[in-house]
């Protein structure tokens, strides 16, 4: 009897303890169901290859890239999962969590088969520029078809969480901030040197932007650009003087130093700042000012600040990925990141914000340089292909005008002319595809029917399919040989599905982020779902990426 009473007592005690632990667990779970940083900062480094982290790592300071790696999480095998790898699609894909197949930004510019003209990814004739009289700055995100993670945060917080987008390039500011942003600001160079916006967001520049423009901060960067350190110590790049760089107009050689003030009149005025390392410094200045100007991260409702550093792309296009100019640009960017993070620490509070950093695409080594070291590469004469394809089709089908446009490595059909002449579209696709595939320096060709009816899971075909938008893309898509570009023999470019264009950094750090790294493959479209999961908000409405659970605490 005593044993039975004792056993009941023990079981009762165990049950009470178990329920207590369960209650504690449930309480803990309820407290950690979401992490709510005061501010999320999304950073895109335009044209940043992953290997820039490793190439220049020993020269970086402790407070920029190294701080993110040391305190945060480094996804070492992160890639774009679509073609084409350009700035507009890149920024849209990072923040929407999907590819051009769904968000619709199929390039920076593309041929619009409905209006019969080429359109720009951020252009919007229905709005006007604010802060400039230029007709060239009428911009909005209206061509992007899906929401961004910043949009979802706005909806989740009943529009109380602010979103501000900043970049020298308009598309780098507008697309990340999304459709519901409080503001997006980009840099108008030429003879103005001002940060501007459009009536999509507001009818007048806010006071803090006017004050920044009036400070002549931009003019202060019209100075000599020389290497940050002794140029002899720049061991991670090629010779300063070589045949693979374009340089600035008005200077005989593409070599340091560059007197930007003296060169500006021959290089579109203030636009020369964009093409130097100082463009990133100016962006950092403006982003830091925005924290105060917009009171970002000053309450318990999560705000978003999207910042794109565009000058890395301008420098890469001009000088190439192996240049002294690129090395110096990243060493200086590292210092800009350090002071930006210090500003976040001071203004928002260390531990109160979350940051991710990635790129919108990578870049290829200058093919003319690769040829000197016997690596297969080259240049493609697109104008010749366009002329010869049109001539071939006209002779083959005895009809003129069947091809409406060839743009972005895509052939667009004139369907009204096909219909009038009883030309079968699928037959035309196959005929053109076969002809183009025989062309020198063409690697692969895909037809609309293949992309609509097939399911590709890997290789270039899968990347093409994820970049193919049924309504906006063309009817035949072709792919050039590796390291073969349609470009000048100087400077680097991008756009392919090869690793030099797809392998991009992905760093997370701050509130809710683990410390560590992985070589597991991740994709650009995983970023927005991961941040959404961190915040406990709905994913962007077209998101196709996965949550990187191993990144989150």
Overview of the molecule:
The chain is α/β, with parallel strands linked by helices. Helix content is 38%, strand content 17%. It contains 21 helices and 20 strands. The strands form five sheets. Strands 5-8-7-6-11-1-12-19-2-20 form a ten-stranded mixed sheet, with helices on both faces. A hairpin with a 4-residue loop joins β3 and β4. α4 runs parallel beside α7, α11 runs parallel beside α13 and α15 crosses α17. It is globular, with a radius of gyration of 26 Å. The two termini are 50 Å apart. The N terminus is likely disordered.
The residue fraction in helices comes out at 25-40%
- How large is the radius of gyration? 26 Å
Strand proportion, as a percent range, falls in 15-25%
Uncertain runs are 1-30
**Strand segment count:** 20
Whole-Å distance between the termini? 50 Å
Instruction: Give the strand line-up of the largest sheet.
Output: 5-8-7-6-11-1-12-19-2-20
Please summarize the sheet with the most strands.
Answer: 10 strands, mixed
Indicate the mean pLDDT.
Answer: 94
The dominant shape is globular
Helix segment tally: 21
- Structural category: alpha/beta
